[in-house]
Design goal:
InterPro entries: Methyltransf_11, Methyltransf_Superfamily, RlmA_N, rRNA_m1G-MeTrfase_A_prd, SAM-dependent_MTases_sf. One of its GO terms (molecular function) is metal ion binding. This is Methyltransferase domain-containing protein. Keywords: Metal-binding, Methyltransferase, S-adenosyl-L-methionine, Transferase, Zinc. This protein is α/β, with parallel strands linked by helices. It has a single domain, classed as Vaccinia Virus protein VP39 (Rossmann fold). Helix content is 27%, strand content 28%. It has eight helices and eleven strands. Strands 4-7-6-5-8-9-11-10 form an eight-stranded mixed β-sheet, sandwiched between helices. The protein has a three-stranded antiparallel β-sheet with strand order 1-2-3, with no helix packed on it. Helix 1 crosses helix 7.
Amino acid sequence: MLECPKCKSELIKTKHCYQCVNHHSFDIAKRGYVNLLLGNHKATGDDKEMVKARTIFLSHGYYAPLKNRLIELLKDKQIKTLADAGCGQGFYTNAIHDALQCDTYGFDLSKYAVDEACKAHNGVFYGVCNIFHMPLSDESCDSVLSVFAPVDMKENARVLKPGGYFIKVGPGPKHLLEMKQELYKDVYENTVETGYAGFTLCHEELLEYTIDLQNAHDIKALFQMTPYYWRTPKESVEHLLSLSALTTRVSFHITIYRKEEA
């Protein structure tokens, strides 16, 4: 189901690379992932420092309830192939793969995140690519997962089989409300969106609970995981990072859509 990003023909794994019939070749990195970005595309995504901080934060179990809930929701879907579009360091990808034992593909623009994800050595295929152009053939997946990542529904519809599932996790209305109150004078609840053409909404829920951050390192790591990291005034950032502890609620808006059959 992997296809060449240059010519769209099938990619076949050899000993040291993936190659198509037109001799386009993509080396397998030492850790095991494949860089499928074309030469004229400069990779961005999370840098090495952000990946390290996020990995440590997630290892402390703050988001484990979300991981476990996603596994519960997917277990009865009889999923055989899953693509994680924006997999990061594979926190959810690896856990879902291990629980469901399905063919799993993780894609992210950050080579540092994908390199970290590969440390699990559990058979998941990881590739560096733009998730708006995934190297997958048409209608090849039973499911596409998106956890706090950009969404391209045209691309998701392309790679999903008819009747396949798109699972999306985004911020609920009160996600990180108390952290936002430390950063801004006027704080607004997040808006949530539902509904995509060609898809039927078959499940929606809010998963909410409170987390207690007991050190400045975890507070900074959580902050780096949010879009506020890029647009918050310097003095507000300094105030947040001066805190030695923070209690804040987390709110995850989980939706599952089914691709309508023609």
